[in-house]
Amino acid sequence: MSYIENENNEAHEAIRDSEDSSDFMKRFVVVPGETIIEGEDYLPGEGTRREGSKIVSSKFGLAEIAGRVIKLIPIFGAFIARRNNVVIGRVTDITYSGWLVDIDSSTSGFLPIDESPRFVNRNEMDQYLAIGDVIAAKIWSVKTKGIDLTLKGKGLGKLEGGFIFRVIPSRVPRVIGREGSMVNLIKDKTGCNITVGQNGWIWIRGETIDAEIKARKAIELVSEKVHVGGLTDKIEAWFMEEK
Amino acid sequence: MSKEYKRSDGRKNNQLRPIVAKVGIIPNADGSAMFAFGGTIAIAAVYGPRQLHPQHMQNPSTGILRCNYDLLSFSVYDRKKPGPSRRSNEISKVTEWALAPALDLKEFPAQVVDVQIYILQADAGTRTAGINAASMALAHAGLPMKDLICSVAVGKNDKHLIVDLTKEEEDYEEGEGATDFAMAKLANHDELTLLQMDGKIQPNIVKDALKLGSEACKEVYEAQKKALKEVVNGGEEK
Predict the structure, then answer these.
(1) CATH number of A2-74
(2) Which residues of B touch A31 (CB under 8 A)?
(3) Could you tell me if the ipTM is greater than 0.90?
(4) Residues 192 to 221 of B: which have CB under 8 A from any A CB?
């Protein structure tokens, strides 16, 4: 029991911290069923629930207290496709009505021919997207039968040049940062073009190979350091050191 | 019932064997864990949520849990013939029922979460070690769970209630003989998800046995929690 009380003290401290500096928030690891914080003042956010006067975690991950809302950031697990996620995938097959795309999810994605931003002749589909091509696509719908994709949207389409690599899908939000702060920082510092897919696939294209490798190193560093707060500043410092 | 009952391995009546718990032991799996009670070692791997085949097993309203438990052939003294048996089928099913109440797979309709549990070394209490490992592996896979599941075997040698029996204690034959009472519960709730018994027990003692088991489950829970937290940053402080 004393252990749980300790956790709560930590949580209260975390709130004080977040009041001191709004940017830095203390996060701590919780297991499913563990009490994150006690009190009627808090609202259970994603991955948490209310049980009596307690806010209880429903997943294994990092609990974050942002003002009154308690959130749970998952740090392990497979990619779970949701509508409007931008993902990076590889074309695995061409059917008469569209393309099959491997997006590293429980089912493969399907990109209908009508969802390409320009007209594609049914007989010359491989001119537009051939097997093995890598695309950034948006998830249009998730049904039990499968996942439908679209290429209509800003920043979507075939990815040419550069390379792709993977990080653990649940760490993608960290890589992107608050309102894109982290990925924008890395883009600024390396001058690379970066597209981050919610499925954990990341595409980088830069002017030089050195810049690309540097960007990749930075992203891998971010995805490893899940537990560190104020990471954007730390990565900025890391770039200074690397120079 | 004297409290000072001396067990064959010198433990107190409410003392568990040394617990070893580790998370993330199988890199290819979405979640994995190892759990050991002394000489009983179980490993568990979780795959999914993923597409369920055959299709007729799909449930359009929720995802399902599928467990497979087995002893490895070298885990026991007389070689266990590999492959499913009546015993392993039963324990697979029972494990599935023990874990399902903690798991919420509503988000994953028509999909399946596969749990593979293997016993590397058996010295009684394999199903309980398996459930503990599987519960950690499910959490490690990032699945929505109500709570962790803790499992332990309580039992009786003659008139003495004991916890976490060894094979030797399971085969005890003097007096009233041996009773093996495997249980699993939600860690932070008073809800049992598994209750099985071998042998005989007086109805008025059952309550005491369950109480003893619940106390032991707390110890198991602390070990599980510690192992899960350690995996996040290789044991170092935040």
Answers:
(1) 2.40.50.100
(2) 139, 148, 224-225, 228-229
(3) no
(4) none
Report mean pLDDT in 10-residue bins for chain B, 238 residues: 74 94 92 96 94 90 96 95 96 97 92 96 96 97 95 93 94 91 94 94 93 95 94 56
Pick the CATH number of B19-232 from 3.30.420.40, 3.30.230.70, 3.30.70.100, 2.130.10.10: 3.30.230.70
Question: Nearest Cβ partner of B139 from A31, A80, A106?
Answer: A31
CB–CB contact B225 A34 (8 Å): yes
What fold characterizes domain A86-158? Answer: OB fold (Dihydrolipoamide Acetyltransferase, E2P) (2.40.50)
Whether A88 and A127 have beta carbons less than 8 Å apart is answered as no
Residue spans of the domains in chain B: they are 19-232
Put simply, the answer to whether B186 touches A33 (Cβ < 8 Å) is yes
Task: Identify the residue among A76, A79, A228 best suited for mutation to test binding to B, counting B beta carbons within 10 A and taking the highest.
Answer: A76
